[in-house]
Write a structure and sequence with these properties.
six-stranded antiparallel β-sheet; 25 helices
């Protein structure tokens, strides 16, 4: 797969730009305003993989190709045991990959160091997910002459590792690049099939069986199909029998014979027969869609239906016809084009299913509503600053509300307003649309990604069978904002609502309070989790009922025994060891952590300090799930949420 793209002087992109595309997930979207360069990314990759036209930036026409040196260089993430790299290129792949994994800012010339910031963020996640030892990371592509190019990674430290002499430009010369890396590039380009569906494509032409992309989706060409039906031996028989017939005529006609003008009598060739079959059999057949009892030519469908037909066809081929699609990278430009908003929702759900069948799905879009409906993937947000320079933000789909909040805070409020506005509006719109359908989705909106981790385990059955989506939104303030926006739209459609939306928040020391209408709405609920000392148990209460209780976070309301078992997997940390020593092991039960571990205010403070360290909340959530045993009891409040979803 491709995790990023270095692009220089191609279409809208001038100078060198690094565009992050994925953190290892196969579902990857690109969003941004018109003319920002979304389609250029997909088109550049088509140029690389399918020998397409190198569409130069206008600067190239003024300054010349040799001066600007345009390039298209993806960063590939390739599994080492995937049998993609041939034996003769494994050594160079390993050396190059080791250099990239451990690259430092000082290895790169100063003008390109800003690009590494984005790459380093990706590396943090890839290394956290333990991908470093199992995967090569290989930036390699082409320049404007279709020669090998490494972008800003062609530097002296790499030359030193490869023991290569460098020129005055302090980089490996082109002749040596070709010698060292050409085989590696050919291995990669030979393996992957890049299928690009531009926005202006004619659906009738694309869906024709003669189209090379359709044949790539099938995993076989029409020639392969025909050759199986009409093998070479059959063509030989035809030639033999026809020649026999001509000989019979010659015997009758004596001094006359039916011959070609040359001495060498031409036979029917395999290519002639195959082309004739394509011309008379396949070319006359067009894709039709069943409408009632009649078949409609796809060219007669509406623009939106044509777009949907392309996605449907792709999904069916990959799911039911092609045996293996691990080498396909599918790129689609604006798949929502001409579709009604309600149809967009299903379209992107199909795209997500497609992404799970192939190596990678890349798409550009103006519709942000897909973001909360997808359980896993990445979105690249492309904007421009006040100097008209491209800027790129890579956001995780699984916790995008949380990430947008963090990006906004880190940028001190400069994250483009349209991202903040659209991400909320399309989010609300998408939820409402999904709960109105005949096969509705259900939603559980929580505060953070660690909560999501626990809930994904507890609600595994609901995710698979009840179309439950669990979305972390980035805190109690966001829960309030989303609920209030949902409420306005929900009231307009409440009679037709079929799915359930639950918003869940902690009980913080400084409460975020607002009025909820849980009793008036069967399918829209907003709760706060609370440890009720009068009952010695965790309960769900309406947000507008202010509880008199200590602050309650997700870690306080899990199964006590499992929690303690997971915490013991982090021994060696001074604060954790000190906390464990304060716990009476004999009294630990399967009740909520707060009661099972008898958390006094001092113990709560110590525990809170532990969970505020780095990425500990997320790391602990993984160990907690690993620690679940047969003795584990699902918390009562979780069971109550399950009943609401049913």
């Amino acid at each position: 797969m491709i995790i990023g793209l270095s692009i220089k002087y191609f279409k809208t992109y001038s100078a060198t730009n690094y565009i992050p595309l994925s953190n290892g997930q196969s579902f990857n979207g690109i969003v941004g305003n018109n003319g920002i360069g979304k389609s250029s990314v997909l088109e550049a990759l088509d140029c690389l993989f399918n020998n397409g036209h190198f569409n130069f930036n206008t600067t190239v026409r003024k300054s010349g190709e040799e001066t600007t040196n345009p390039h298209i260089v993806p960063i590939f993430l390739i599994k080492k045991d995937a049998d993609i790299i041939t034996a003769e290129n494994i050594e160079i792949a390993q050396q190059y990959s080791d250099f990239i994994w451990e690259i430092k800012e000082e290895d790169i010339i100063s003008q390109n160091r800003e690009h590494l910031t984005l790459l380093f963020k990706q590396f943090e996640i890839l290394k956290r997910d333990n991908l470093k030892d199992e995967y090569y990371v290989l930036p390699i592509g082409i320049n404007h002459n279709k020669g090998v190019d490494l972008s800003f990674f062609n530097v002296k430290p790499l030359a030193d590792i490869l023991k290569e002499e460098i020129g005055s430009g302090k980089k490996i010369e082109q002749v040596q690049l070709e010698k060292i890396f050409k085989g590696l590039l050919e291995d990669i380009l030979t393996y992957y099939e890049y299928i690009y569906i531009p926005n202006d494509i004619d659906p009738a032409t694309f869906t024709n069986l003669e189209n090379q992309h359709i044949q790539a989706l099938m995993g076989k060409t029409l020639i392969d199909v025909i050759a199986k039906c009409v093998p070479r031996s059959e063509i030989s028989k035809i030639n033999t029998n026809l020649n026999k017939f001509l000989k019979e005529l010659e015997d009758v006609l004596l001094e006359y014979s039916f011959r070609t003008s040359s001495d060498r009598q031409l036979m029917i060739r395999k290519a002639n027969v195959y082309n004739l079959i394509i011309e008379d059999f396949f070319r006359t057949r067009k894709l039709h869609k069943l409408s009632g009892k009649h078949w409609l030519d796809v060219s007669l469908l509406s623009s939106g239906e044509k777009q949907k037909a392309i996605i449907d066809l792709t999904q069916h081929f990959l799911n039911k016809y092609r045996e293996n699609s691990n080498n396909i990278i599918l790129a689609i430009d604006e798949p929502e084009s001409s579709l009604h908003m309600s149809a967009c929702y299903e379209q992107f759900n199909s795209l997500f299913n497609i992404s799970e069948m192939c190596s990678q799905l890349l798409f550009s879009t103006h519709w942000y509503g897909f973001i909360p409906t997808i359980s896993n993937g990445n979105v690249t947000v492309i904007t421009k600053d006040n100097k008209n320079k491209h800027c790129f933000d890579l956001i995780s789909v699984s916790n995008y509300r949380e990430e947008i909040k963090q990006e906004f805070e880190s940028s001190k409020g400069t994250l483009p307003y349209d991202i903040r506005l659209k991400s909320l509006n399309d989010f609300i719109q998408s939820i409402i649309t999904s709960i109105l359908s005949n096969e509705p989705f259900n939603w559980l909106l929580c505060e953070g990604s660690s909560e999501k981790k626990y809930f994904e385990h507890y609600f595994k059955n609901e995710i698979e069978n009840k179309k439950l989506r669990i979305i972390p939104v980035g805190g109690a303030t966001q829960i309030k904002r989303i609920y209030q926006n949902l409420l306005v739209t929900y009231n307009d459609f409440k009679k037709d609502v079929k799915g359930t939306v639950i918003l869940l928040m902690d009980t913080d020391a400084s409460l975020v309070e607002f009025e909820t209408l849980n009793s008036n709405h069967k399918n829209l609920k907003c709760f706060r989790i609370v440890n009720d000392d009068s009952k010695n148990e965790t309960i769900l209460v309406d947000v507008n009922k202010t509880p008199k209780t200590p602050k309650t976070e997700i870690e306080d309301v899990l199964c006590g025994k499992t929690f303690f078992d997971a915490l013991n997997k982090f021994t060696g940390d001074e604060d954790i060891d000190k906390f464990i020593s304060t716990i009476n092991i004999d009294n630990i039960t399967t009740e909520s952590v707060y009661y099972s571990l008898d958390l006094s205010p001092r113990k709560q403070q110590a525990l809170s300090k532990i969970f505020k360290k780095g990425n500990f909340k997320f790391e602990f959530s993984e160990k907690y799930i690993e620690s679940i045993s047969e003795e584990h009891i699902i918390p009562k409040w979780i069971e109550e949420l399950k009943q609401l979803i049913k």
